[in-house]
Predict the 3D structure of the following.
Amino acid sequence: MSASNCPETPRQKMIQMMYLVYTAMLALNVSAEVVEGFKTVGNAMSKSNENMVLKLDDTFENFEAALQNNPGKVREKYDKAQEIKKLSEELVYTIDTMTYSFVGHIASKADIQLIDPNNEEKLIKRSIPLKNADGSTNFDSVAEALKIGGFSWINKLDDNHAGTPYFIGNAEGNEQKGAAYDLIDKIHAYKHAVMESLGSDSTHVSLGLDVDERRPNAEGKLTSWEQLNFNNTVAGAALVTLTRMKAEVMNAEFDAVNMLFKQVKSNDFSFDKVAVVARPNAAYIMQGGKYELVVNVGAYDSKSKFEANVGGQHFTSNDSGAVVYSTVCNTTGPKTINGTVYVKRDNGTEKYDFKQSYYVAEPMAVFELTEMNVVYAGIDNPVRISVPGASAQSLVVTLADPSQATITSQGAGQYIIKPKVKTGKIKVNASIKDGNTTRFMGSTEFRARPLPDPKIYLGRAQGGSISIGDLKTMKAPQVRYGDDFAFKMKVPQILKQTIDITRVNGATDLENRGAQWSAEIQSYIQKAKPGCKITLTIEVAMPDGSKRPVSSTFRITK
């Protein structure tokens, strides 16, 4: 890069911007399979949300039946449930609106062609306008398109440029904040209003929606909820997060309303329906990881166990009224868990079927050079290595051939590669260590190159012409890397230099130690005139420890 006493040119700024874009692409190299995974997870979660709506409807139908049977006893709890329902619907509406707005924001087309599900033959495609005439998003149409086609028709789920400014806003935080902060404020207001509506009953329920908790990111650093979910994430991940938040709101509503209903029915009321709630530890699992599913029924008697078949295994509920199913994910792709819960009733046993979907992704290590797309011999080359979903502490990085280079950890996923060879390919492997087991995650090859020659500058001139006025004010040349070498490199040290000035008697092969010109050389430079040429041959100490001669010729103009 340019020296600190020289302003950056537009070209330098452009190169730096291209470099930042390139490294971001390396860091978020999302494969087509993972994009398909986002579609599968998003569609599965949307379907799960639809099922939760049905479960909530069933609970409120039971509440209404209880109200009709005993208004005096049920009215207080019923009114609280209705207030919570209203608050939840408002927050779900906010999340839906944010989802439709973001889909419209990233949509590359003004309309989309989808097969009409109402057509019996399912061969007729409908044209759904995503944009209004003024270019704004048509929320109703986007909602309809998502209902018909899910996430499958969105063709920019791998876009990692739109999400951050939309949800986070200005990186320095001194301008308008993004949509994620508005969502956090709405969630705070929702939780406060629900707890206030529950009153003394609030001690019996936990709403979740923990948007204030700081959790470690892939590098092990504690990170805020909004940064962890929306900063530098692809569009597909952002949409899955919004879908998940919608599910969490409905789960909070279900838990709060179901708690109120259980209190109403604790003495002389009995449930006429049971809602099965199946909660996975995650909907996106890395191959070799563990998928866990906790199955509850919407209401249960702590003195009575229920039976369940989940994924082909038989279970009996534990003391907390839950069944815990787990499996190791050895194969990749979309997965479905089918289950049946058997609940004992006064008139026999009733069964309730349920289904859960998740996605298992292939192991994927991310290798990101933080300076350039090659590694230079003899110097430290910073590189960031990570595995999505794994902590930096569990990462094991090795070289395929240690004779070619060294690699050392700098902590938090940061490494330094120092090639021992001037040319060739250096292969780096990444694995994850889990207890006594080590799983291979991937590898990449970096190209080793020798450091290029630095360039000689007289002021801003790098060879070519220099005015006599500018030349006579100078005290020394500069040696640095030019605009075509986009790597953070310290300025090489000038050891000695030889100067030849044509058409000035006695100014041939003048020698000088160090960077600053001697009084003798400056006196000869003062004698130079337009038309003269200055040839500089400079020996420099390179950043890799070697010494190297560089030379350049300048023509003096008026």
